[in-house]
Amino acid sequence: MTDTLRQSGFTTTADGAWWRDAAVYQIYPRSFADSNGDGLGDLPGITSRVPYLKELGVDAVWLSPFYPSALADGGYDVDDYRDVDPRLGTLDDFDRMIEALDAAGLRCIVDIVPNHSSDRHVWFREALASPRGSAARDRYIFRDGLGDDGELPPADWVSTFGGPAWTPVGDGQWYHHYFALEQPDLNWDNREVRDDFLETLRFWSDRGVAGFRIDVAHGLAKDLPDILPSQAELDALPIDGSHPMWDRDEVHEIYAEWRELFNSYSPARTAVAEAWVEADRRGRYASAEGLGQAFNFDLLESDFDAAQFRSVIESNLALSEKSGSSSTWVFSNHDVVRHPTRYGLPPVDGRQVRQGAEWLLSRGREPVVDVDLGLRRARAATMLELALPGSAYLYQGEELGLPEVADIPDVDRQDPTFFRHQGTEIGRDGCRVPLPWTSAGPSFGFGTAAPHLPQPAEFGRLSVEAESGDSDSTLTMYRRALEIRSRLREGGLEWMETGNPQVLAFRRPNGWVSVTNFGDELYELPDGELLLSSSPVVGGFLPGAATAWLQG
Ligand code: NOJ
C-alpha cells in the first residue's frame, strides 16, 4: 500500500491524531486557481498555490468535489467517484498535487458524496435503461407512482433545493432525490452500493489522502414504508434514530465498516461528518468506532453574542469529551453567507445572523450591510475560534476577509437553489466567487480568462497581493494567528472572570489568553504580553468587536 503520509515530518498530538487540533483549509477547487485559462479553477492551480497554503500556516486542506460532474450542484453531483473532472485535471495531476502538499507538510482531505450520485453516473443510466424491479434500479430509490398509470408522484415530498423530491422516469416509476433531480439518492441497503464506496475510499486512501469529509452523512440509511407519509407527516416525525430518512441508527453500521478500512492504513485515515443532527446525537458520528469527527455548525448559526458563543463552546467541548473526539469550529463554507457579511447585516426579529442571512439570500429587500462592522466582528470571531481547543475549518477567501458577493447577475448564477426557486432565492454562488490573487489584471490573478462567476471590483483591494504587504490586513492577521496557534494549541481551556457580560476570556494551559469584546465599549485587558489583536489595542484597552491574544 502506498503511504505518502508516513514519510513526512508532520506535527501530531501525543496520540498521533493530527486532526484533533488541525487548522483545515477548505478549497472549492473550481474557484481557487485556474492554471489553464478556461475560467475554472483546477488541480494544477491548487498545486501552484501550495507555497501560499504553507505560508498561511494551515495543517491540511479539504477539497470540495473535483470529480467528473455536470455541475448541477457545484460538483456534489458526481458522475464517477474515482476520477478527476477533465476540466480540473487528471489523476496524475491529483498525484502531483498530493506530492506537493506532502512535501510542504500539508495533509489532504477529500469530499465523498455517498447519499446520491449524479444522474449521469453509469449506475443511474443503467437503472433508467432497466425495467422496474431490476437489480440496476435497486441501487437507487424507485417507487411506483400513484394514479391509474403511476402518473402521480408516490408522495408530495419537496426537495431541499425546491420543487418535488420525486421525478418520473416515464414507465410509471419515480425516483427519489432529496436534492436536485440530477442527484438521485442511492439505496444503502444494497450491498453493491456499500462495496463500491469501500472501493472508492480505498482508491483515494491509496493515493495518499489523509481523510474524508462525508457529505450528508446523516442521510444514507433510509427505511421508507410501502405507503409513504406525506411531507407534513414526515416533518412531524421525531429525529431520534427511527425517522425514515434522517439520522437512523443503522447509518452507523455503514461507518463501522468504513472505520475498519480507515484503520487498516497507517496512519489511520480520518473522516469528518457533515451531519445535521441534534447536538447530542453528533457523538456517534464523531466516535472512534465511527467517522472520527463531526462538524459542529453551532457557532456558524450563532449571533455575534457573548452568551451564545459561551454556551455553544461549553456544550461542544463537553460533547467532544464525551465522544472521545475533538470539537470542530466553522464560520464559513461553500454553503453559507460569508461571515463578514452575516455579521454586518442588521438584526431581523431580534436575531443578528441567522434570519439576516436568510433575508439576504431571499432577496426580500436590498441588503444593507455594515461592511466595516461585519469585518471587525468576523476577524474577532476568527481569532476566538483559532484560540479554541479542537479543529478549525476555514473556508478559502475568509483569510482575505472576502464578503458575500450578493449582486451576481441572474444570467451568471449556477446554484440549483436559484433555479428551483424560480429566482426567489439567490442561493450560494455569492460565497463561491473565484479568489483574487492579484490587485489588478484579468480575474485578479485567478486565471487568464473570465472567471466562471464574476468578481466585484473590490476584490482587487482584497487580493492576496494587496493584503500580503499590509500589516493590518486580514491575511496578515490569519498568518500570524495560525503561526501562534501552531505553537500554543495544546490542552483544554479555562474560562476567566471578565466582570463584563459582553466580554469572554479564556486561558489555555500554557498561559495563552484570548479575550473577545462582543460589546461596543472599550475593555481594559488583563496583564500579559500582547501577542495579536484583531483591531488595534490602544493603551491596554480592547475596542468593541475585537479579540486580543495575550501571553499571561
Ligand atoms: C451538502 C453540501 O455541502 C452542499 O453543497 C450540497 O449541495 C449538498 N450537501 C448536496 O450534496
Structure explained in plain terms:
This protein has about 550 residues and is of the alpha/beta class. The strands form four sheets. Strands 9-8-7-3-2-1-11-10 form an eight-stranded parallel beta sheet. It is built from 16 helices and 18 strands. Helix 6 packs parallel to helix 8 (about 250-265) and helix 13 packs parallel to helix 16. The protein has helices at about 45-50, 50-55, 90-105, 120-130, 135-140, 190-205, 230-235, 250-265, 280-285, 305-325, 340, 355-360, 370-385, 415-420, 465-470, 475-490; strands at about 25, 60-65, 105-110, 140-145, 165-170, 175, 210-215, 270-275, 290-295, 330, 390-395, 495, 505, 510-515, 525, 530-535, 540, 545-550. The protein folds into three domains: about 1-115 and about 190-475, Alpha-Beta Barrel (TIM Barrel); about 120-175, Oligo-1,6-glucosidase, Domain 2 (Oligo-1,6-glucosidase, domain 2), CATH 3.90.400.10; about 495-550, Immunoglobulin-like. Bound molecules: 1-deoxynojirimycin. 1-deoxynojirimycin binds near residues 76, 179, 215 and 334.
